[in-house]
Amino acid sequence: GWLRTGDLGTIRNGRLFVTGRLKDLIIIDGRNHSPHDLEETVAAAHPLLGPDRVAAFAVDGDEGEGVVVVAERARRAPDFDESEISRAATRAVAERHDVRLRAFLLVKPGGLPRTSSGKVARSAARTRYWTADGTESPHGS
């Protein structure tokens, strides 16, 4: 038998590895994308971004499902060009995953909601930074 847990996994060398959650999966043009993979790409795209400070999630719109990324900038970033960071993240996701971001939102340090264990809470980030009508929420940043 089996139990539907909502987890996604892969088997390597006869061992099962959990790779994510089914509810977080992003489907664009019939292709599945792990939000974790998109987040890693964005985190590595610019020196003022980094691991565990990025949330990627799916949004619906007139053009179908799209991807929005919310990223916290580094704490020590006195002079930075937000458009440069956005271009770097957008370009990296397009080149590595063949995905065009619907939006890239850069927020202040500590701006991403987290779970009690300190992980970025994607669903809460979506609620905080994206509205039901498909626009950036004024409650964000």
From TrEMBL:
Molecular function terms from GO: adenylyltransferase activity
Q: Which InterPro entries match?
A: AMP-bd_C, AMP-bd_C_sf, ANL_N_sf
Give any single GO term for biological process: fatty acid biosynthetic process
Provide one Gene Ontology cellular component. plasma membrane
Q: Where are the transmembrane segments?
A: none
Q: Which family does it belong to?
A: Belongs to the ATP-dependent AMP-binding enzyme family.
Q: What highest taxon heads this organism's lineage? A: Bacteria
Q: What is this protein called?
A: Acyl-CoA synthetase
Q: Where is the AMP-binding enzyme C-terminal domain?
A: 24-131
